[in-house]
Every structure is written in structure tokens, then in C-alpha cells.
């Protein structure tokens, strides 16, 4: 697992600019502290930072040349089935790394090769003969890749901070900002920076290295085009899930360094431990964390201990605190490249930092909820008419908190389109409490003109013939997974030089899971109905069917205590012209006095304001006013 960056000069570029880009790339040294490699030829610059996991020898350092020397790649990721691919393609390897297999199969089979790569990856492959560069990303966007383009350069990097550091200045993108204010992150290719995109998962972009022109954009896989509904029985489906999940975990145990498993005590992570302990060559290490900020007074330490004992793991219980929450907050705001308001990145960062003391690779359970209907909204959409009727009775509810929740649900379920239902469901905000209220009037007007729900409209069109549940599941696969949860996982772990693997999102398991009809997934009002059935007899029933004792990161209480003074100072010293300083301060005070819970809105503002402060000398509005 690694990080890479590249620069293609479209026009004549001073030598110092190439040197400056190399210097900027050091901001992602944490992605690959074991080795840095640089390739430069004419107007092409490739930089790679290596975290050595497969074939620790220097022969697998990058940039990596194909045997013919015609292709050179920089690559971030793992292809778990690389040995099978090498055998099938009769490739005689000189290393034991997946990098060699990846570049040789691409040279041999071009775009057709990518469909066979089962893994997590982003890569750039430079064809020296054709003077082209192919930039591509895995099917679900597990590994990040940013592309920036203007009239002078084409830039790409595993982390956008490399690009932002190199640029003299950059402009805000209002659509990206509007999405951030509704969801806490951007939801598609567009970022908050003009001309900077996230490469769409499952695609390859090909550029000329002569003039930087985009020659082709090819989608090699998508849920819409490559997944068809199956007609298996429930029993057959359950058996297939069990087989494919074990195969996925087993496949992802390849490594030349020790592997650990993050064990929360929940269903998904427990399944990782169950199948890893069965298929790993030695005793597996498991890591469970207890947080002093677990405000509901419960944790899953006992469940985790039960799983660790059942599968005889080397179990580690870690304790983390909120003592340095301000420092961690500021660090993570910078590391996430653009404003990102998923507060769960904080505890994940903390546990990965502790794991990094003796591990480079961890397995964890992300993806189970999206594949197997683990969220309450799927059950609500499955009983749409009932919940629509019930929520419309909210004026009769006496308890203020519940009345507000039901009012919001009534607003969502009374929307005229599935796109609007999904978009509002995935936001914690509603128009009658607009998240734009904290901006100055001029900015509010600009944001109100943005199609913030554009990506949900696209997904609704993609799955127009699907029922509401299936439409939500597949939309979550295309939006929620890559742009929220996988983004959270990658940045929070890689800052600590940890590779996080997600067996739930293995190609074969994903293909099958998205082919299952929703009537089998959502049943008896049981979350993850099929996954639980598949794990019966493997995972104890008290974990499968017992209460979930998870916690939410306590941003509400932090904004009244640990982060209150920091937030107040941040708003008071605000130097940009986006935010209404007085409005932000008023909301903070109202929250502290418990007049209303403004925690998520305040968190988004604080993240945004902190991020803007990092780039205050670079960031510009389109009116050229420096923030």
C-alpha cells in the first residue's frame, strides 16, 4: 500500500516547478515511508512512496518498469488474486509482488486486464511508445485518486494536498461546497476545488503526455451495467454468502508482513476474525478499543473478548481518550484534503495509530451494511406507505425530540421523487433549517443555485426500474461507500502507515451481494437478515441477534467542552468572507446552553473554517477575493 503522484507538463515548465512538485509530494510520505522512487522523462514526472507489504525486496520498488521497458507504473493497492492471474496469463515473474503482475497483464491485455484484478487499487501507467498515460481506480473507490487539470499541467495524486501545496492558488467550487454543507462531504467526482476531481471508481482515464489532452474515459465496471439480479432461493443465497465471504477473507490474507484484525465485537468484524483465524497461517492478532468518550456508557469489549476467546486470537484491548482531541481534529482536517465532516475518523485514527506499533496491515468490516441492508432506512423504505402515514402524525407527538425526528421523516417521505427521498435521507438537514444559514448573504445566493443533489438524481436515473430499497442500496454503493466511509478509512489509517483491507468489498462478494433481490435482504424488520443467517453456527447468536452497543463520536458534548474554546476562537478570528461570524457564534452559544442540538452543523462549520485557515493565502473566490 502506497501513495503516488504525477505531473504532465502541457507547456514549457521551469525545472524548479518539477522540483517543487517533488517537494510537495513529501506531504504524503506517511503513505509509503519505506522507499521513495522518482521517474522523470521529458515532460513526465512520476513519484512513488512505498509501504512494503508484498515482496519486501527493493526489486519491487516503484516506479516499476515492465519487462519490455515500454510501460512504467506507480501503483497504490493490492491485487489479491495476482498469483492466479500470473498463472492464467503464463507470466514468468522475477518478483513476488502484485505490481509486476498488474503492469504485465495490462501491457498484454490492455483494459481487459483490469476486470480480472480483484483488489483495492489506484494506478497510473505510462506508455512510453504511445506517449499516453492511463490513470485508473478500483471498482468501488477503496483507494483514492485525485486529478487536477488546467492549461499548463495535468496533475494526479493519491492525496490532493500534494496538488494544493504545489498550486499558487485555487478557486472554490460552489457545487462542491453545497454538497459538503448537506452531507458533510462531496458526493461525486466534483471536489470543493475548481478543476480538481476524484477519479470515478471503476474507470480509466487516458491522457496524451504530449499535450495533456484527455483521449478517452472508459468505465470498466459498474453496479448498473455489470450486476444482474439472480433468482436463487433464500437457502441457496445464504450458502453462497457464507462461501464467498470466507473466500474473500482468505484471499485478503496474503502478505509478507503480519496481519491484524480490528474487532469491534459486532457482526462484520466478528466474521473477519472467524474466517481469518481459520485460514491464516499463524495465530491472528485482534484489536479492540475502548473510548473514554463512549457517552452511552456501553461498549462491545465483552463481545469482542468472547469472539477472541472463541477463535483463540492474540487479543489486545486498547484504551484511547479525548485528551488531544483538538490536536487530532486539526491534523485530520488537513489530512482529508478537502472538508470532511465524518467525526468517526477520530477514533479510527486513534486505534490505527496504536495498531501501527506492530502492524502494517489490518482487516476491518466496512461494507457489510451497504451490501446486506444494515441500516434502518432500508426497512423504512420497505414499508414506505406505513412510515409515510405514521410520520405525518408528528403534530400529535408530545415529546419534542421525537416530534422533530418524525417531522423530518415526514418531510423526506413526502418528497415527489426517489432522488429527493434518498438525498434528504442521507443528510441531517432539511430546507426549513437550511445549512446555508451560516454563510454571508452573497454566498447563500450562490449556494442556493447549486444542484447539491445532482449525484442522487443521477443514481435514481441509473436504477429507475428498481424498487425503493434496491435503489437505495445501490445508490449507497455508488455514493456513501466511496465518498464517506471508504474515504474515512483510507485517510485515517494511511496517515499512520497502515493498510486497511475490507474483505466485505471483495469483487466476488460484491457482485453477488448486489445481485440479491431486496425482498430477501430486508425481511422480518431484521437488519442484515441474510448475513446473520449465513453466520449462524459460526458467530454466537448473542452477537448476531443481541443488542448492538456501539457509540457515536460525541461531537455534541465536545463542542460544549473540549472543543468549545477552540470553536469560539476559530469563529471570532474568521478571516474569510464565506461565513457569517455572528451567526456561527450565536449557534455555538445556543448549542452550549442546550437550547438546541446544533452539533452536526457546528462540526461542518468548524471543519470548513479550519480547512480554509490552512489555505488562507491560496484560496480564492471566482471574484478573485483572497480568503
UniProtKB/TrEMBL annotation:
GO terms for molecular function: asparagine synthase (glutamine-hydrolyzing) activity. This is asparagine synthase (glutamine-hydrolyzing). The gene is asnB. Gene3D superfamilies: Glutamine Phosphoribosylpyrophosphate, subunit 1, domain 1 (3.60.20.10), HUPs (3.40.50.620). Belongs to the asparagine synthetase family. Keywords: ATP-binding, Glutamine amidotransferase, Ligase, Nucleotide-binding. It catalyses: L-aspartate + L-glutamine + ATP + H2O = L-asparagine + L-glutamate + AMP + diphosphate + H(+). Signal peptide: none annotated. Its EC number is 6.3.5.4. PROSITE patterns: GATASE_TYPE_2. Residues 2-210 form the Glutamine amidotransferase type-2 domain. Pathway: Amino-acid biosynthesis; L-asparagine biosynthesis; L-asparagine from L-aspartate (L-Gln route): step 1/1.
